[in-house]
Design goal:
single chain; 327 residues; six-stranded antiparallel β-sheet; alpha+beta; 9 helices; Nucleotidyltransferase, domain 5
Length: 327
């Protein structure tokens, strides 16, 4: 079971790259590493010469395409945009495959109180703060990989190659350990504001059982949720295809574009004495599925109280609605 409940039952990996510089326009990939927390497997790719970058990117994309979610450290700002641009520039792909990015750096910066008093929020600093530094075997940092790679291209020294791969491998294994240690983060709140991956079963009246029996599902993820006034608003994207949906009534609004995969859900809530409530009896969900939640009572579900979001209830209702509306 993952520390993040929204990854249970899904495929995910930890991903990191080493590059010859920061500019995706003029620099290239050196190596890429994948760590799979479930199995403990670490898989690595190395660019033996610059002309083989496109082949490396194709292999990366093939592995990433198997994942519902990809865990990185500052990957939203560097690794993933760099990979995407190099994929296009090298002709390896038109872009990265479909998955939900989980950037641990961003989550720690926004949701970990200790981050505000740390001198640095580098991955190594976080490892030290969490008592995980002892598991590293490498003795270099990412910046040193650039000169080492130049030496590798000149000499073909396998020891240099192994030094780079050891560093890149330690980065993903250590990030996996960091991730497994983050049970103190408010994952329900993170999911509400930052989004989460999910699988949406396709074309069945009993969607969840159909997915488990046939494996037919569509990868999707919620981008963000918010409660604006007395309305729950949800935005996300799914793999394109299927049947477009447009529903507008007094109980909820839902749009799904089969061409772009973008979906939007709006759910008007009942406002009463500082709380916001969803009337489950007017929605296409089963009331019994929500009876276990503290915010449930007599067919209603409290999604916000005194300005504080009940993220568990809101996320569960969102998932239930999407399961029924997207086919």
């Amino acid at each position: 079971m993952s520390v993040c409940p929204y990854l249970d039952g899904l495929e995910y990996c930890v991903f990191d790259i080493e590059t010859t510089g920061f500019s995706a326009q003029s620099c290239t990939l050196i190596s890429a590493s994948f760590y799979y927390p479930g199995s403990g497997e670490c898989f690595q790719l190395f660019c033996d010469e610059p002309g083989l970058e496109a082949a490396l990117i194709k292999d990366c994309c093939a592995r990433l395409s198997e994942c519902d979610a990809v865990i990185t450290y500052n990957g939203d700002s560097f690794d993933l945009p760099f990979m995407n641009r190099r994929a296009v520039a090298s002709g390896a792909a038109t872009g990265l495959p479909f998955f939900k990015s989980l950037d641990i750096y961003k989550y720690l910066k926004r949701y970990w109180p200790a981050a505000k008093i740390m001198d640095s929020l580098s991955q190594r600093s976080v490892e030290a703060a969490l008592g995980l530094s002892d598991e590293r075997s490498d003795r270099i940092d990412g910046g040193e990989c650039v000169e080492l790679y130049k030496n590798w291209l000149r000499t073909g020294d396998e020891g240099i190659k192994n030094t780079i791969l050891l560093h890149n491998g330690d980065d993903v294994r250590q990030l996996g350990r960091i991730f497994d240690s983050l049970n103190f983060l408010p994952w329900q709140i993170i999911a509400f504001y930052e989004g989460y991956p999910l699988r949406l079963p396709e074309n069945s009246a009993d969607l969840l059982s159909a997915a488990s029996e046939t494996g037919a599902y569509k990868k999707a993820f919620v981008r963000e949720c918010k409660i604006d006034g007395s309305c729950l608003s949800v935005r996300g994207i799914a793999q394109p295809g299927g049947i477009p949906v447009s529903i507008y009534n007094e109980n909820y609004e839902f749009e799904y574009s089969a061409l772009s995969g973008v979906f939007k859900l709006k759910l008007p809530l009942i406002a009463s004495d500082g709380i916001l409530i969803a009337d489950l009896q007017k929605l296409p969900v089963k009331e019994d599925n929500y009876a276990v939640y503290p915010g449930f009572g007599s067919g209603y579900l409290v999604l916000s109280s005194s300005g504080h979001v009940n993220a568990l209830e809101a996320n569960s209702l969102t998932r239930g609605m999407l399961d029924r509306l997207m086919r």
